[in-house]
Predict the structure.
Amino acid sequence: MKAMKGIGASPGIVVGRVIIHWKEQIDILREYVEEPDREIDRFRTAVEFALEQVRETYSRVLEKMGPDEAEVFHGHKLMLKDPDFIGRIEDLIRDEGVNAEWAVKQVADGLIQIFENLDTDYMKSRSDDVKNISERLIKLLLQVGGMDLSNLREEAIIAAREFTPSDMSQIDREKTLAVIAEMGGKTSHGAIIARNLEIPAVFGIPHLLDELENGDLIIVDGDTGTVIINPDGETIDKYREMKVRYECFKKSLSEIRGQKSVTLDGVEVELAANVASPRDLDEVFRNDGEAIGLYRTEFLYLDSTYLPPEDVQFEAYRDVVAAMEGRPVIIRTLDIGGDKNLDYLAIPGEENPALGYRAIRLCLDRQDIFKVQLRAILRASAFGTVRLLFPMISSLEELREAKKILRETQEELRRREIPFDEKMQTGIMVEVPSAAILSDHFAKEVDYFTIGTNDLIQYTTAVDRGNEKLAHLYSQYNPAVLRLIKTVIDNGKRAGIWVGMCGESAGDPRLIPILLGMGLSEFSMNPSSILQARWIIRSLNKGELEGAAETALSFGTAEEVEEYCSNLLQSLSLCR
């Protein structure tokens, strides 16, 4: 028996036999061609075939799975029609006289590197798109294929090095018990499709295929990210019992749709969703989100080849605000720079971009860009409940300057008689230690706080969250981070303002009881986590958790805190 650990990408527990989906490893060699124009014609033919394949896949997925799952392939169609992407490949073929396969790989690898360095869920999904499209084009150019996943002879767990959206679109839903892979994460398109299909999945398992053989009996726990190869009888019985409990848990989630997120002692909190565009709203509604706790506006800029005009921004913000029908929408102003650069902005290179010219610092310097966005957000506020959020605030001087520019923009709209919400709330992201420590002063000048734990952990622990070698030091259970969170919540309460959280920690089942005990008012998370969070909150007594929060804060190591939180959750009978 061997247990392997990966990333739980789609929940569920299964026991079954494994089939290994071996993909042909293709070595692309650089070759010189005598007639580049003919090579470009060959490439264009491959693009046309790829478009036809993607159209067929889009139609099949739309019919079998629905519009959300099919949206991935709509994005693939757009990429195959993107003159910049296609043009770069053709220019490389023409300028260097190289074969099309090599040109596709070179351009794709460059884009993949850029997207993966940006360290955001959305940009990593863009990296997946480029990988998928380039792989499709190269296979067409070389005329090679792969295993048919749509026609399994018997029920099985499928293992692979990686699952692309195209792979997942072919999955035989009736016979595929689970999918496991060496690569991928919770936000990859493959993971998203697996969750929508309700197929348990564990991705990111190092050396998985080295340990497996076709026909091995394995256990897959998509919640904890555990895969057990050739388990003994006692372990099989344990996980089968867990599977029964998990099915009961799933049923209980469906029963709380539409109910309030209120504790047993009557304390109501707001469960909100993090989104990047209007396209994300379907998932918010499907998971019964009560608000938008973070609208990441930077993706409107990252998706463009030029600064988005005011009307383009206004329409994107308005669509989300109007669709929420009065429920709050927190719109964060542009959080760009650092590791998220724009080709069309001359942002200088920096030795330490995480500490550099980014977010509110860039906006205060480039007020021309900032005011365009503020006008668009203010105009959208006339269509619902908008709350404005300034990111990366580290000093009172920055906040006061940002509010001054906001007032100037509001006055400009008044003169032009353009309507906006005069009572729109304004808050700051508390994501650097200086803001947390000075939160008693900040609380006097804003309407609310949103704690951004992803960066707060990074800056508090001095750990680059993208550095795999330091991953063990990057923890939401770090006592120093939790003490800063408690400080912010306490200072907010004393000043009479509400405090929310929009980092990954807000959706962590083991931390929710502690955060609730600390007095957190709003939890904003990935939409898929909302119903689970509501179920947990409705099972808790907030008054009884205040002591538990104090206990969690008394420990000196992240390991002690994590163990305590896990035991607390189990003692409250919340684990499935």
